[in-house]
Design a protein that fits this description.
This protein is an all-beta fold. The chain contains no helices and 23 strands. Strand 1 and strand 2 form a beta hairpin.
Length: 160
Amino acid sequence: MSAEPGGLKYKLYAKYSSINDCEIGEGTVVRDFVNLYGCKIGRDCKIAAFVEIQRGVVIGDRCKIEAYAFIPSGVAIEDEVFVGPHATFTNDLHPHATGDWSITPTKVKKGASIGANATIVCGVTIGERAMVGAGAVVTKDVPAGALVVGNPAKVKKKME
């Protein structure tokens, strides 16, 4: 099935999904059981099943977002980024059930890879071509080309 929001064509394999007020680039594939609202997704991306991408999120071109990833408001993802299954981003440094709160922005630079089950605490920047290991908890900026692992995530090595 093809859809044409704003004249853009993408493949929608989603019979049971909620997709509202989104800009989705040409060649992007969206699987079933996703919640996408108020976000912008670039060209030639792959959005797997059970993904949630919230209002204001911007995702670049040729990104791959795996199953069960959670990307809340305040996250910006550049081109050619991989987000592994069950990866979770946060957007509030001091969450609580009541009262005011504010979004703390997070950036993922071009070519970065985020492993399965990683947690990205808001307010960080993940550098170009950086790799976040599976299960890592990122609490500080990740330098370009670095591999980080652990809780809290620490630089294990510099990638070539």
